[in-house]
Amino acid sequence: MTDDLALVWFRRDLRLDDNPAWAAATAGHDRVVALYVLDRRLLGAAGALRRRRFLHDLAALDRRLREVGGSLRLHAGGAEVVVPEAARTLGARVIYANADVTPYAAARDTRVGQALADEGIDVRWSWGTLVHPPGSVRTAAATLSQVFTPFHRVWAATPWAPWPAPGPAVVIDAAAEPCPAPDGPYPLVGGESGAAAEPGEDGALARMAWVLERVDDYREARDRPDVIGSSQLSPDLRFGTLSPRALAQSVGEATPGRAAFVRQLAWRDWYAHTLAQRPDMVDQPLKAAFARLAWRDDGEGLEAWQQGRTGVPMVDAGMRQLLALGWMHNRVRMIAGSFLTKNLLVDWRLGERWFRHHLIDGDVPQNVGNWQWVAGTGPDSSPYHRVFNPVLQGRKFDPGGVYVRRWVPELAGLADEAIHAPWEAGPLELAAAGVELGVTYPGPIVDLKASRQRALDAYAAARAG
Q1: CA spacing 20 to 30 A to 20: which of 56, 295, 300, 402?
Q2: Cα 199 from Cα 46, distance rounded (Å)
Q3: What are the structural domains of the chain?
Q4: Backbone torsion region of residue 434, taken as left when φ is above 0, otherwise alpha when ψ lies between -120 and 50, otherwise beta
């Protein structure tokens, strides 16, 4: 250990526990300062609920640092200016940070790295946001698998690269600007209570404990939006209040439910690894043939989808849940995404941007990867000819209509079977439920059968060139 000071640049890793950048700094130096650069461009691009949750989690990190004698040194501005300036001011010759895979972050970090190198300041990167770092899970031909199942097989067999243990460094109180105050209570996506409603890593650990009590049923319950069957930990992984390794280790694979859960963490790594290798996947289909796909210009349909007014109850329920909570159940994300890209034949990138803005867990590699999956344009996608039928999906995964009744209350009086396709109900049944299609609730904006065929024809034409 040297008698010097290191700077830890926090980004999307708002925790001290199981954080390799923080651990390496505290183990390798006598003193450390925690830095956060508030990029108002990113803050402005986030929806209100994601922005609020982030500000709560950021303040929670500051409180945690104060518990160990320090504080969070926060500066607003461009990182390529703020980080070198903070290092000069504090006399830090080494900076620690956890890397990121988004094109925006990669370009920013290149600029920051060059500015620091010009001043002789070293940057030491870790990968505290993933289970395995990009480039570490390879096929026998030393390439990244374009199919998830073989990737997962190697992922599961790959030993974890060692992370350092934290050391006894003194955490310096070097506060600069105060953390911005959130404009409302900590936004939760549902199901948590008590200690689990707290922001930051303490709340994340309580939320994980809440999940561990239920995870054995995950494989059967995760597709049911009418029950709390998913973990709802994606916002904690998004902001790094929870370590993906700690989560994987705590869950384990002792039961089918636990193994299915950990498999989702492998999907998360796979999308991040893919984006690191193919940064163009943010804007370009990974199946090149679909760059020729003739998307429809349907502004009215897009707006109806965005506002949950398509006349298709499972789609509308999901889109309204998104606007209200900043979150949507994963099964319903697939249903809503399929409806936009297949039934409306609207470009997946428009849906991806809408989700990314509004989702609390809006995370570029996951969001882009999932949208390319549902659109059939990604490397290991749902086949292009698979079109989710939102009526059948609703009857299978929300058989009692609980989910639709919560988010589309104007249909609450309909019977369970009819609630997923009110246009199939008779006039007396609709009248008894107080439903008047086109007045109290819209009729479907598109014919599901005809639009499915239109999508199949468009995809086939793109494939044929």
Answers
A1: 56
A2: 18
A3: 2-128 (3.40.50.620), 130-160+199-277 (1.25.40.80), 288-464 (1.10.579.10)
A4: left
Count of beta carbons in the 10 Å neighbourhood of residue 135: 12
pTM: 0.95
Q: What is the pLDDT of residues 132-188, one digit of tens each?
A: 999 999 999 999 999 999 999 999 999 999 999 999 999 999 988 888 899 999 998
Provide φ and ψ at 159, rounded to 5°.
Answer: -65, 145
Looking at the DSSP bridge assignments, the partners of residue 9 are 35, 97
Radius of gyration of the chain (CA): 24
> What crossing angle do the helices spanning 256-277 and 364-375 adopt, rounded to 10°?
100
315 is written with which tokens?
Answer: 């789609």
According to the model, what pLDDT value does residue 194 have? 60
Quickly list DSSP for 285-321. Answer: -SSGGGGG------HHHHHHHHHT-SS-HHHHHHHHH
Which tens digit of pLDDT belongs to each residue from 55-67? 999 999 999 999 9
